[in-house]
Amino acid sequence: MEHRNDQSGAGNRRSKGGSRFGYFLSSLIGLVVGALLVALILPRLGWMDGGGSPAASRQPQAVQEQAESDTVGTAEAPNEETADPASLTLAEGADVPAVVERVGNAVVGITNIQSRQQNGLFGIPQSAEDVPAGTGSGVIYKKEGDLAYIVTNNHVVAGANQLEITLADGTNVQGKLAGTDIWTDLAVVTMEASAADAVIEFGDSSALKAGQPVIAIGNPLGLEFAGSVTTGVISGLERIVPVDVNGDQQPDFQSEAIQTDAAINPGNSGGALLDATGKLIGINSMKISTETVEGIGLAIPIDYAIPIIEQLEANGEVHRATMGATLADLASIRSAYRAELGLPQNLESGVIVDRVLENSAASRGGLRSLDVITAADGQPIENTQQLRQYLFTEKQVGDDLRLTIYRDGNETELTLSLTDNLQI
Q1: What is the pLDDT of residue 4?
Q2: Active-site residue flag, 27
Q3: How much is the pTM?
Q4: Annotated catalytic residue 155
């Protein structure tokens, strides 16, 4: 006899009905979730309201225009006339290619051509021949009348019989030396104004800050690399650099310089150091190159150079206050000789007067040969470099200079009325 389990069958029937209800419920939930996803995704894809964002379409037109204006304003580079160069970086805000395109043509090459005697057979001298003695860079900073004015380094043009200016497009024109100053290593050269395509504007080197981005343009290693551009930062300000004027390996003067890590190499001398807006802040002058040093380039601050440039334009030389005497360091004199001068044993530094020039401030003020200068206007003087630095930077023609001296073993004071070094 067959036995049927009614409870089991009823359970099976309930299970089938529950399954149909669960399927219906899950389908309904899926439809709701799908509708929500479509409602969220479609507006983001721009498929509503004719392709525009629903949020934007609901905004008033004035609000949309203001939002667009704000977005454009933040994307634009700073205005050149109002931007602070110290606040710009080369990565953002400073368009280096645009700066180079605008002012790069104002940086030129300068070839120093000198006359050299050539020897023929058996060493017999022949006629002199003009040959290139070296190349450097220069910066066109002014056009006035028929002339364009170029600032460069004195050592770029020293000893030249001719100066050849190479423009950015490779064209060569004749240059003429307007003036030079060995003490600051600056020179001014002129050429025809019609040849100048661009002029660089002077900046303000007194406002520079360490870390500020800079651009260097010049002709490293000769004219084959003309117009080379390097970038870096201001590494240091008011660096004091000893200058050897007469080639005796001893410093004769101290020059103020800007230190930068922008690459400066032989041939860059006289080239441009620019701020991030393209204004001239320094004249590239030299680099410190040893096995243990990397990335130390030096430039003459433009604020320091401008008064020299103006005098070189006007006079061809620089008017400076002078005493009118030849001097030597007391430290270079033998101890026995110093004793003969009657100097105190503890006096080890100062400046000894070698010769007094006629009709000079020194002669009119009573300074004599073998006087030993120990102070100027109350400031201790240890060597000729220090005295020369004080005269060149702190004194003007016609100023009084109070000297403390030792003469015949006695300390005394003299007052000189300084004269023009170009009128002695």
Answers
A1: 38
A2: no
A3: 0.69
A4: yes
